[in-house]
């Protein structure tokens, strides 16, 4: 049985103490690692073909237009309803 209040010592040193040396060289090594990881992730990206890109663009334009029409209709309806309720309807 283990004690509830017992703490374990970490198996690795603290993050700030892992690397020693020149802070500038550590910064450049971290920057190099970051850029290499970005490039690795970009290699995994699946880019759409020209036809798929056009199709996606058309779908977005149609959807946005439909949502604009829906919101405009709701706005027009509410404005007429409010004008009718307040008595200044035209």
Q: Helix count?
A: 3
By secondary-structure content and strand pairing, the structural class works out as mainly alpha
Low-confidence stretches: none
What does the average pLDDT come to? Answer: 85
Order of helices and strands: HHH
Helix content: over 70%
Number of strands: 0
Indicate the radius of gyration in whole angstroms.
Answer: 30 Å
Strand content: under 5%
Please give the alpha-carbon distance between the first and last residues: 82 Å
Shape by Cα distribution: elongated
Biggest pleated-sheet summary: none
Walk me through the structure.
This protein has helices at 15-18, 23-44, 50-86. By secondary structure, it is mainly α. It starts with 14 loop residues before the first helix and ends with a helix.
Write the layout of secondary structure elements.
Blueprint: H1 15-18, H2 23-44, H3 50-86
Brief rundown of the structure:
The chain is mainly alpha-helical. 70% of the residues lie in helices and 0% in strands.
Characteristics of this structure?
90 residues, elongated, 70% helix, mainly alpha
